[in-house]
Inverse folding.
């Protein structure tokens, strides 16, 4: 996988649960095209083919030469840079595939990635190359795989990162950041895909991509023109998607998993709307029998009994809708409104009457987490570019943001998603070097520091920083990964 040095455990859990869910339905669910139709109707609602970027992007991908290093943990979005081992070969690979850059630039203003669901809904050349969301790989609706993410999309991101740095090394700074903006816009388009697995992949990828671009801002600070930093902070990063604001309110919550669960319920109930004991026990009993964190309902035998006590199909669908409606209200609310502290509709489900709904529906907390980290990275990158523009113009870092607003960055993006008082990013001009505990070891920061509070909502003065804010704060400037490279702590 290109973009993550370490696989996200929660993401793996969500993906595994989804796969297990439909493994249990192998013998009873056989109408995959119907589920594909529902998903694609949802995905493409209100859009046209000309508004989707997937066709030109994959057309360009299929003409690319193989990467010189297998895409994976050692060759990914966060490890590609001119100081890496084998950079010459990577740089030549980037230069040999400029058609991908042309496709990214031409597709960046489209509103939707638009990767269809189902093998039968893409050209055979795509499915032969593993560029598919396979809803039914075998007989029946047994699992869902997203091969296009870990194959084509990973490779495209690796290429884009390599080409970005190749252009910077060639002193083509404007071209480099034109490409950089284009590929983060592609990732933002992908953020509108319908499944939780996809949503997390694209949101996390976008956060990583923005962090690598901050690495480059730091590494090439002395060479990048002030005017380019100003453009990045006022015209490019604030408008990755024209409808987004500082809180990413226009980003849609994934609905695909709800569609799958609804279909599974339909397959588990008879025509009278009551649970079919055999199908119900086969699907949910097999799911429950597997080793999962939700292992509290019992065996297949118990599910046969639960089938006689379970709410009707209509009532189960109504509860499913209620759960998603509750998540939607929270998704649209500000981070620290009262509703966020109330019990969720999911937590209030009756464990007997709606055991199937409770077992099948996964909490969307990971998507909320990914959105907060993306807000941090977008807003932080906007003001990192602004700080660099100010520094290049005046020769020193500003005392505060008053000289950065409007001229070098868009003021409304001064927002910290972890501040319970809805405050802005925390900026400090340093009078002396500051020691920071980081994921890469102990680092020394000089000049200035820009950070958000982290998930504990406490200002730790940047003493400790983690990439996800689970401990301490999240320092976005200077970029700690690049500092660690300069200090020879990492390759």
């Amino acid at each position: 996988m290109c973009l993550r040095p370490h696989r996200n455990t929660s993401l793996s859990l969500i993906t595994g649960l989804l796969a297990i869910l439909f493994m249990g339905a192998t013998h009873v669910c056989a109408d995959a095209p119907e589920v594909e139709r529902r998903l694609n109707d949802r995905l493409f609602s209100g859009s046209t083919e000309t508004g989707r970027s997937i066709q030109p992007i994959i057309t360009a991908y299929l003409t690319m030469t193989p990467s010189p290093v297998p895409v994976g943990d050692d060759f990914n979005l966060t490890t590609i840079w001119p100081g890496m081992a084998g950079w010459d070969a990577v740089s030549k690979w980037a230069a040999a595939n400029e058609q991908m850059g042309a496709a990214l630039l031409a597709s960046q203003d489209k509103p939707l990635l638009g990767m269809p669901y189902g093998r039968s809904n893409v050209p055979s050349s795509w499915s032969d190359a593993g560029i598919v969301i396979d809803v039914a790989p075998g007989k029946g609706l047994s699992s869902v795989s997203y091969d296009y993410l870990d194959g084509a999309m990973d490779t495209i991101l690796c290429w884009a990162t390599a080409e970005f740095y190749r252009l910077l090394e060639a002193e083509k700074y404007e071209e480099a950041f034109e490409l950089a903006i284009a590929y983060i816009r592609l990732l933002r388009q992908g953020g509108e895909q319908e499944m939780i697995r996809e949503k997390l992949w694209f949101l996390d990828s976008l956060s990583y991509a923005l962090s690598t671009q901050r690495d480059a801002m730091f590494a090439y600070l002395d060479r990048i023109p002030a005017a380019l930093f100003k453009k990045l902070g006022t015209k490019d990063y604030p408008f990755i998607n024209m409808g987004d604001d500082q809180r990413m309110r226009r980003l849609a919550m994934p609905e695909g998993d709800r569609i799958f669960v609804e279909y599974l319920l339909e397959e588990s109930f008879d025509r009278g709307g009551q649970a079919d004991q055999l199908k119900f026990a086969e699907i949910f009993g097999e799911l429950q029998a597997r080793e999962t964190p939700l292992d509290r309902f019992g065996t297949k035998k118990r599910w046969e009994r639960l089938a006689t006590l379970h709410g009707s199909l209509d009532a189960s669908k109504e509860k499913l809708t209620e759960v998603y409606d509750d998540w939607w209200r929270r998704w649209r609310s500000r981070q620290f409104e009262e509703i966020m502290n109330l019990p969720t509709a999911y937590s209030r489900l009756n464990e007997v009457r709606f055991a199937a709904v409770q077992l099948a529906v996964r909490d969307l907390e990971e998507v909320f987490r990914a959105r907060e980290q993306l807000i941090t990275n977008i807003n932080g990158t906007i003001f990192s570019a602004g700080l660099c523009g100010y520094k290049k113009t005046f020769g020193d870092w500003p005392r505060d943001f008053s000289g950065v607003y409007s001229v070098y960055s868009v003021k409304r993006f001064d927002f910290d998603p972890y501040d319970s008082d809805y405050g802005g990013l925390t900026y400090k001009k340093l009078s002396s070097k500051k020691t920071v505990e980081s994921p890469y070891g102990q680092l020394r920061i000089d000049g200035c520091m820009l950070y958000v509070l982290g998930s504990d909502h406490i200002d730790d003065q940047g003493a400790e920083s983690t990439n996800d804010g689970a401990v301490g704060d999240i320092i976005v400037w200077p970029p700690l990964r690049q500092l660690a490279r300069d200090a020879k702590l990492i390759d």
Residues 3-30, 138-142 have pLDDT under 50 and may be disordered. The chain has 17 helices and seven strands.
